[in-house]
Amino acid sequence: MWPTVILLMLSCFPVRAALRAGAAAADITPQEWPVRLIGGFSLDLAQSAHDPLYARAIVLEEGSVRIAIALIDSCYVKREELDRIKELASKRTAIPTSRMMIAATHTHSAPPSRAQANDQKEIRYVNRLVEQTAEAIVRANQNLQEAKLGWAAVPVPEELYNRRWYLREGSIEPNPFGERSDLVKMNPRAGSPELLHPAGSIDPEFFVLSIQSKAGKPLALLANYSLHYVGGVPPNQVSADYFGEFSRLVAQQLAPADSSFVALLTNGTSGDVNNINFLHPRPRSEPFERIRAVAGRLATHAVRLANRISYEDSAPVRMQQQILRLRYRKPTPEQLRFAQAALEQDDESKLPPRAKAYAQRALALERGPEFADLKLQALRIGPVGITAIPCEVFTETGLTIKELSPLQPTFTIELANGHYGYLPTRRHYALGGYETWLGTNNLEPEASAKITRTLLALLEEVAK
C-alpha cells in the first residue's frame, strides 16, 4: 500500500530535464593590414594586433529549449550583420534565431564591423567576423554535454566613475550645432577646478555565471560589468581591451591546460561610466597598464567566486524576444540650417568642434527612415534574469530593470542584437552633453522608458 502511495505522490512532481552546455571561441583578428579602427573621432590605422580578437559563444539546453549567447570583440555590430550571423548559425544548429543573443564588448581598438562602400579589405574582414562568429556558435552547439552551473555577484566599485559632470557656470562650450543647452559635460578634465559633481550613478555589481561539466570540469564563465571600456591602447594596434585580457586571465587560472574553456565578459549598462578618476587623477599610465589592472581585479573575483559557489545540474533556460518600434530623432529646422552651413564652411576654426561630423550625421538622420525596429530580449538561466538592449545604455536604466525585475538577480547586456547609439534616460536627455547630441543619440526621448517597460514584461514571461 505505502509504496504505491509514494509512487503516486512522486508522479505529481515534474522531473526537470538535465542541463546541457557547450562553449567555443573563434578568432576574428584581422588578417590584412593596416586596418581602420572605430571608437574615436580621428582616423587611426592599426598596423598589428597587440592581442587577438575573438567571437565567443555559449549554448545552453534544458529540455526542448536551446539558446545561444555570443560575444564579439568589437566596438559595436549593427543588427543587419548580427542577423546574418544568426541565420548562418541557425541553419547549422537548428537553434531558432529568436533564441540567439549576440552582443559586442565595446573595445575601441577593433576594426569596423560594417565596411565602407567598395572597400574590399573591410568587406573581407566583416565577412570573416560574420562567418567566424557563426562558427563559434556552431562549435559550442557541437560541444554540448551535461553540465551544472552556479552564479554569484560581488560589488567592485573601485574601477567605476560616472563620466558626466556638472561644471561651474560658463565652463561648458557649445555643442556641435552651436547650441549652448548642455548642462553637463562628458569626460571633463580630471582634477579641473571647474568640477562640481557627477550627474549620474554607477552600478558596482560584478556578476558571474559559471558553468562546469557534470564531473566538475570548468567549461565556461559568463561575467557582466558596467564599465564602458578602459583604453590606453596605442592608436596603431588592435586590442580586445580589458574584455579580452579578462578572458585570458580567467582561462589561465581556472583551466590552465584546457584550450576549450571560454570566458566571456559582457558589457553592462555603462553608457555614462568609465575608468577615469576625475576628482583624484592617477599618474599617467603606460599603454595597457590600466587594462591589465582592471582585468586582473575582475579575474581574481571571478575565479574566487567560481571556486566557491554551489552548482546545480538543472535550471530553467528561457528566452523571449520582441521587436519594439521607436522613432528616430530628426534635426530641427535650426539644426538643419546650421548643418548645411557648416558643411559649406571652409574655415573649420569658425565652427564648434566636430561641427562637420555632426552635420553629416544630422543630414543622414533627416534623409533616413522614420522608425527603428529594436530587437529586445529577456533570458532566464536558473533564477537569473538577463536583458539585452541594442544601445549604449545609461546606468540608471540598468538599475531600474534590476530593481523591478521579477527575477533576482537580473543584469543587462548592452550592445546586444544591434547598435542604435546612446540610450540616455529622460532626465539625462534634458541635461544634454555628448551622449544626448543628435547623431550620438538617435532615438526618441522616451526610448529608455519604452524599452524598460517592454523588457520588464518579457522578464515576466520568462519568469513563469
Q: How would you characterize the overall build of this protein?
A:
The protein is α+β, with helices and mostly antiparallel strands and 464 residues long. It folds into 2 domains: 368 residues, no CATH class; 33 residues, no CATH class. Helices cover 30% and strands 27% of the residues. The protein is built from 10 helices and 23 strands. The strands form 7 sheets. Strands 7-6-5-1-8-13-14-16 form an 8-stranded mixed beta sheet. It has a 4-stranded mixed beta sheet with strand order 18-19-20-22, with helices on one face. The chain has a 3-stranded antiparallel beta sheet with strand order 11-10-12, with no helix packed on it. β13 and β14 form a beta hairpin. α2 packs parallel to α3 and α8 packs parallel to α10. The longest helix has 23 residues. It is globular.
Radius of gyration: 23 Å
Total number of domains? 2
Largest sheet: 8 strands, mixed
Instruction: Name the beta content range.
Output: 25-35%
Q: What percentage of residues falls in helices of 4 or more residues?
A: 25-40%
Number of helices: 10
Mean pLDDT: 95
Number of strands: 23
The end-to-end distance, rounded to whole angstroms, is: 36 Å
Shape: globular
Q: How are the strands ordered across the major sheet? A: 7-6-5-1-8-13-14-16
Low-confidence stretches: 1-13
Helix- and strand-based class?
Answer: alpha+beta
